Each structure stands twice: as C-alpha cells, then as structure tokens.
UniProtKB/TrEMBL annotation:
Signal peptide coordinates: none
InterPro entries, sorted: Amidase_Cbmase, Bact_exopeptidase_dim_dom, Peptidase_M20, Peptidase_M20_dimer
Family according to the record: Belongs to the peptidase M20 family.
Keyword Hydrolase: yes
Organism this protein belongs to: Brevibacterium metallidurans
Protein's UniProt name: Zn-dependent hydrolase
Segments forming domain Peptidase M20 dimerisation: 167-259
GO molecular function, one term: hydrolase activity
Keywords carried by this UniProt record: Hydrolase
Domain of life of the organism encoding this protein: Bacteria
Record flagged with keyword Phosphoprotein: no
NCBIfam families linked: hydantase
Residues that span the membrane, as ranges: none
A Pfam family matched in the record: Peptidase_M20
C-alpha cells in the first residue's frame, strides 16, 4: 500500500487500511475492497489472501490509468478473520462495523494464554479507534469458493447471493464413570456411547435437509484413560442451514432428540449455543453490476451461496455489500495444496477491477 502511495492507517483492532482518493472525491463515502491475510494451520496461499491481492492489483490498475471516480477506494486487510488463533472468527470486521465491542475483542486469548490486545501492542499494530472503517457506499470482497461448484462447471467466478447462517454449540454429557471391567454393558451409563448416538442422529437428520450441514470437529473425554468408562464427554456441534428459520428449527429438533438419547442412556445432558453467525443477503444492485461487467468481459458466471463466514457478512449488516467466489482446484481450502488455476485468477482480477470501476463512477 505504501508502494502505491495510498494513505494508510491502522485501527484499534489492527485492521489495515489504504485509501486511494483525490481532491475531487475525498469527501464521498468510499467503495471498500479487500479481505484478510490471516489463515489457519496448516493453511494455503489463497483463501482471503487472494482477496487482498486482487484489491491491491485493482488499485494499481486504477493508478496506472489515472482513473478516479466520484468515490474513493478503501482497501482493507481485516484482522483475525479465521479465528484460528484468537476466537471468534471475523473479529476485525466485527469491531470495525461495531458488532463486537473492542474491549471484548482485545481481551481474547490464544491457546498459550497470549492476549490479543497485548500482541497487537507488541508488534506495533494497536492503532487508533478513530481510524476504523466509517460509512461506506458499497463493499466488494473476492474469496476462493471453498467448494467444487465452479470447478465442476469449469467456471472461473461465481456471484454470491448470500451466506447461510451457522450456530456453534457445546454439548456436555456426564455419567458415573467406572472401571472398564466393572458394570455389565447393559447396566452402564456411558456418556460416550450416548454422544455417538447423538452424532449419528444429527447426521441422519441433516442428510434429509437440503442445504443443511452438521459437523462435530472436537470431542473430549474425561478422565481419558484406556480402561475407564468416561464420566464426562464434551463435543462441539457446528450446524448450518439454508436460512435462519430452518437453522432454528434444526437446532431445536436436535436439542430435543439429544435430550431423549441422554435419558435413554441415563446420563445428564446440557447444550450451550455460544456463537451464532446470522444469515447474510448480498445487495442485488451490486450483483447486477458484477453480472453486467462479466457479460461485457465475456466471462461466464454462476450464482452461489456461501456456507462459510466472511468479513463481508459483517459489512452486510451495516451497508451494501457483495462477494465474488473464485474457482479452486478440487474445492480444496484451508490446506497447503489450496490452489486457484491461473486462468481463473486472471478472469477474477479482470472482473473485480472492472466492477470497482463501475462502482466508483
């Protein structure tokens, strides 16, 4: 951003901004572009990174051709989109849009006990509250698809109509425990077997729902000894559905079925739904601009809906926002062999830049 001569700043959660403006458009609400640079372990080289690179390339092209519209362009690299080190996800955009309190955000800790605010201070990225993203005209983010729709259809770019909602819950089951050689199998109150039945139950339900997904990615057993029936089992449950009402019904039905299973196995049960990601619907007018730009460039697109949170979800809660998805080989993401075919990347760069030109007119 310094190399492009942008006016840079950092806000109080470490978000990085670069402004491309001139005297004629300085006072207008900007067009916001960009994404995030953080990744997961072990992550790849594209994910949100591609969105930042395409935003930089777009401003470079505008600069080369001395193009200025009626609005400035604001490039943003948001802090901690993944939530991989400091949960929850999308912290930077959450603070920038006022959806997260900054005191809550900077108090987040990682697995080693490091505090986010202290880490920002340590690396010199604890900026000023007044540098946060303000009112904007529209926002546009590019991101890899993280699915196979574009790859299966041999298309470079998809226009995203929205993002499906998500809930994260922690389920806790407790029982008396005991020695593996003790009680007969039929007399056990085993929370692990109950948890296994719950996993099978929610999987069966979700398979019957169009657009729904259920994932159990963590399970912890206490005391965790090879010859001891566990006395406590906790597991996470990630639920996703096509819309808010469907997700709410799925969560309620799942909780009721889990309670029945727990009673059947004689274990106590609780569910704590500790994080929700709301449904996002992206701006129809911006999507129309993208589609027209694609038609002008001869780039075929398809409409896609996201199943994964992005910074644009937060931006869409406070302003007009849209996203492009870019083809990934085999739909692989959050992995070191994450890859975007070069022709798809070039199509995305052309479409992104031309759309921004239309948005700043």
């Amino acid at each position: 951003m310094d190399g492009l001569g942008l006016r840079t700043r950092i806000d109080d959660i470490g978000n990085m901004y670069g402004r491309y403006a001139n005297a004629d458009n300085e006072g207008a609400a900007p067009v916001v572009i960009g994404s995030h640079l953080d990744t997961v372990v072990p992550g790849g080289r594209y994910d949100g990174i591609l969105g930042v690179v395409l935003a930089l390339e777009t401003i470079a092209l505008l600069q080369e051709r001395d193009v200025h519209g009626s609005r400035p362009v604001e490039l943003v690299n948001f802090t901690g989109e993944e939530g991989a080190r400091f949960a929850p996800a999308m912290l930077g955009s959450g603070v920038a849009t006022g959806l997260y309190d900054v005191d809550y955000a900077v108090a987040r800790t990682d697995a080693e006990g490091a505090v986010l605010g202290e880490e920002l201070e340590r690396i010199g990225y604890a900026g000023d509250r007044h540098n946060r993203l303000g009112e904007f005209s529209v926002s546009l983010e590019a991101h890899i698809e993280q699915d196979t729709n574009l790859d299966d259809n041999h298309l470079s770019v998809g226009i995203v109509d929205g993002i499906r909602p998500v809930t994260w819950s922690t389920i806790t089951l407790t029982g008396p425990g005991g020695h593996a050689g003790g009680r007969a199998q039929v007399d056990r109150q085993d929370p692990l077997v109950a948890a296994a039945r719950m996993a099978a139950s929610v999987d069966e339900d979700v398979r019957a729902m169009d657009g729904a997904k259920a994932t159990i990615g963590q399970m912890n057993l206490h005391p965790g000894s090879a010859n001891v029936i566990p006395s406590r089992v906790t597991f996470n449950l990630d639920l996703r559905a096509s819309q808010e009402s469907s997700l709410r019904d799925l969560l309620n039905d799942t909780s009721e079925k889990f309670a029945v299973i727990a009673e059947e196995f004689g274990v106590t049960y609780s569910i704590d739904t500790y994080w929700r990601m709301p449904e996002a619907v992206f701006d129809e007018d911006i999507r129309t601009v993208i589609a027209r730009s694609a038609e002008t460039l001869g780039i075929q697109t398809m409409t896609l809906t996201g199943d994964i949170g992005h910074d644009s979800l937060h931006l869409s809660q406070v302003g007009r926002s849209a996203m492009l998805f870019v083809r990934t080989s085999g739909g692989i993401s959050h992995a070191e062999d994450e890859h975007v075919p070069w022709p798809a990347l070039l199509d995305a760069a052309r479409l992104y830049a031309n759309t921004v030109v239309e948005l700043i007119k």
